[in-house]
Amino acid sequence: MMSIAPRLERIFSNTDAERILLMNTTQKDSYFTYLTGLYAGSFESSILIAHRKKAELITTVLEYDVAKRMCPKEIDVIAAESRSKTMELLKGRLMGKAVGINGTFLPVNLYRSIRKTGKPKRMTDVSKALASARQIKDWPEVELIGIANNIVKKAFSKITGNFRVGITEKELASEFESLMKKYGADEPSFETIVCFGANSAVPHHVPGRTKLEPNSFVLIDAGARYLGYCSDVTRTFIFKPDMKSDKYRRMLEMYNTVKEAQEIALKSIRPGVRCEVPHNKAMEYINKVHNGIYKGRFIHGLGHSLGIDVHDVGPNLSPGYKEKIQENMVFSDEPGIYIEGFGGVRIEDDVLVTKSGGKFL
Ligand code: GLY
Ligand code: MN
Ligand code: MN
Q: What is the distance between the alpha carbons of residues 237 and 37, in angstroms, rounded to a whole number?
């Protein structure tokens, strides 16, 4: 079982808060998952109070047994019969203390009621300290992201067998998700994107009733969630190519250009490099090759952090991100070229930053 001690140590080294309180609403705060390992279950209105070396979880009677069984040993699990009992349990625990909260999640009404009930000395937003700990992946996070990545790649290795004239984007998306489940996914990490033909020029196209035709693009952007961790991978295929056609030649050139841009970006992903640099390298390449015909067609950032959330906390690999890439960060590397009315190519892989540089998972 994981230990949360190193996570607590990293978080508390960046804040002078004496306690950190994470409270779920009907939604689960992803930092709650990070510090409890409770990736399944709703844990609605549950509260985690983190100390420097241990934590207390106040949860419902309903989910007490699961929490007790699944939580790391540093967490003392307490059952509360009702929401008012939960709030009452805060009283002795926060009084006179400097309490940190996740300002990127906790709603204002709950913030006020915790302050009123708990009477802390002060309450401050510690979301930056939380993010700077979580953006560096530890054991078993890297392994879990790796498994999630293997699952989606296995589904990609089989999905071409499902390509057939007339299948709709919606049908193929559902077949892709079934394959991911078959290979071990708990669920898709986001709604699978499938685009046929010209629809691939829209990066976040919603799969519809468009039917697959020969000599056209099939773009699939998908991810698996495995024990709470996400993968996010995109592949672009050319279905039943007509090798002699001008359209095929154009599609292939776009594909090869994006593939090369992805490799160029990967080479500059290493500790110490500013996060915007890999994006700029890929962008410069796409803008200048083939006499600049793809200039301005790479229309989004190169990548994002990946972890518990598919767009995880931590920096993006895109313009304006001046922070340095660090060892054990995980990013997507996903350049693309999009031509309205014709189609688009995106190739996305997940990258682990090692001491010696970025490695595709
Ligand atoms: N699947 C959305 C993205 O690639 O960021
Ligand atoms: Mn994606
Ligand atoms: Mn992505």
A: 37
Q: Are 307 and 221 contained in the same domain?
A: yes
- Gap from CA of 231 to ligand 3 centroid (Å): 9
Cα-trace Rg, the chain: 23
Statement to judge: residues 111 and 171 lie in one domain = no
Using the mean position of ligand 3's atoms as its centre, give its distance from the Cα of residue 310 in Å. Answer: 7
Q: What is the CATH number of the domain that holds 347?
A: 3.90.230.10
pLDDT in tens, 74-85: 999 999 998 888
CATH classification at residue 20: 3.40.350.10
Which residue's alpha carbon is at the smallest distance from atom 3 of ligand 1?
A: 232
Environment class of 133 (CB within 10 Å of its CB; exposed 0-12, middle 13-18, buried 19+) = buried
Does the structure show a pLDDT above 80 at 359? yes
Question: What's the mean per-residue pLDDT of the chain?
Answer: 97
Q: What is the extent of the structural domain holding 227?
A: 139-360
Pair 83, 220 in one domain: no
Structure confidence at residue 324 (pLDDT): 98
Phi-psi region of 8 (alpha: psi -120 to 50; beta: other; left: phi over 0): alpha
Count of domains for the chain: 2
* Ligand 1 neighbours (beta carbon < 6 A): 190, 221, 232, 304, 334, 348
Q: What is the pLDDT of residue 283?
A: 98
Ligand 1 atom, smallest distance to 204 CA: 2
The pLDDT confidence band at residue 325, using thresholds 50, 70 and 90, is: very high
Q: What is the pLDDT of residue 84?
A: 85
Residue of 152, 262, 302, 310 to mutate, ligand 1, most atoms within 8 A of C-beta? 310
311 CA: nearest ligand 1 atom: 5
**pTM of the predicted model as reported, rounded to 2 decimal places:** 0.96
Q: State residue 2's pLDDT score.
A: 80
Q: What's the confidence (pLDDT) of residue 242?
A: 98
